[in-house]
């Protein structure tokens, strides 16, 4: 677990932090920067490499939850690769992540400012059938902007706007679904439009 660091009374910079398991199934490379002391620090973490095989994901899940069995969707991820950045100050948090799995890839930009949350998600061919063990579904791709409000550590409101380029359902691939809607207090409002060569709907 080699790394180098430098710092002062109010800052710490850890360079080239690396961690890996003896079997090579878990690998982490990161850089960590903290400034401003411990009461209200500004911090930034860069992760150019994080790789975990299914065996290590299962072990981490057991440590965190104390549950012997994993949820089905977790067993389908296979080897997970993550690259990204995280930073924060007080109640503010921002992250950019590139996540690759056996069931598809996700690009995520996320920001939390107090109770407000916003971001963008771009996924490519996420295999819902494998994640849910439901043969009715197939793959889904997303290009969505979102924003919402967090109350009592729960998402009380969320708005979505963007496009679903692909959604496989019941052996048909629906394409170019436009989404503009919100969810609040168990009520869904918004519009869906389907610009598919064979189907054109607007809700």
Shape: globular
Alpha-carbon distance between the termini? 55 Å
Uncertain residue segments = none
Biggest sheet: strand arrangement? 1-2-3-4-5-6-7-8-9-10-11-12-13
- What is the gyration radius calculated from CA atoms? 20 Å
Q: How many H/I helices? A: 3
Strand content: over 45%
Give the averaged pLDDT, no decimals. 89
| Sheet of most strands | 13 strands, antiparallel
SSE topology string: EEEEHHEEEEHEEEEE
Helix content: 10-25%
Task: Write up what this structure looks like.
- The chain is mainly beta.
- It contains 3 helices and 13 strands.
- A 13-stranded antiparallel β-sheet has the order 1-2-3-4-5-6-7-8-9-10-11-12-13.
- A hairpin with a 5-residue loop joins strand 2 and strand 3.
Would you spell out the secondary-structure blueprint of this structure?
Blueprint: E1 4-7, E2 11-20, E3 26-35, E4 42-52, H1 54-65, H2 72-75, E5 80-89, E6 92-101, E7 104-113, E8 116-127, H3 128-132, E9 137-151, E10 154-169, E11 172-184, E12 187-195, E13 200-202
Antiparallel strand pairs: 1-2, 2-3, 3-4, 4-5, 5-6, 6-7, 7-8, 8-9, 9-10, 10-11, 11-12, 12-13
């Amino acid at each position: 677990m080699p790394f180098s660091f430098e710092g002062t009374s109010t800052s710490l910079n850890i360079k080239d932090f690396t961690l890996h398991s003896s079997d090579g199934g878990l690998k982490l490379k990161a850089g960590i920067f903290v400034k401003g002391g411990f009461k209200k620090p500004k911090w930034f973490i860069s992760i150019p490499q994080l790789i975990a095989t299914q065996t290590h994901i299962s072990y981490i899940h057991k440590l965190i939850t104390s549950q012997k069995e994993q949820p089905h969707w977790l067993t389908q991820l296979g080897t997970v690769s993550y690259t990204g950045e995280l930073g924060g100050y007080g109640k503010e948090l921002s992250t950019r992540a590139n996540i690759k799995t056996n069931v598809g890839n996700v690009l995520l930009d996320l920001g939390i400012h107090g109770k407000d949350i916003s971001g963008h998600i771009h996924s490519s061919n996420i295999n819902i059938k494998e994640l849910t063990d439901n043969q009715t579904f197939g793959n889904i791709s997303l290009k969505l902007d979102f924003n919402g409000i967090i109350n009592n550590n729960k998402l009380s409101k969320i708005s979505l706007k963007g496009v679903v380029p692909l959604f496989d359902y019941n052996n048909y691939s629906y394409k170019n679904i436009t989404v503009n809607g919100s969810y609040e207090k168990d009520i869904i409002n918004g519009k869906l439009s389907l610009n598919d060569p064979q189907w054109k709907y607007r809700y």
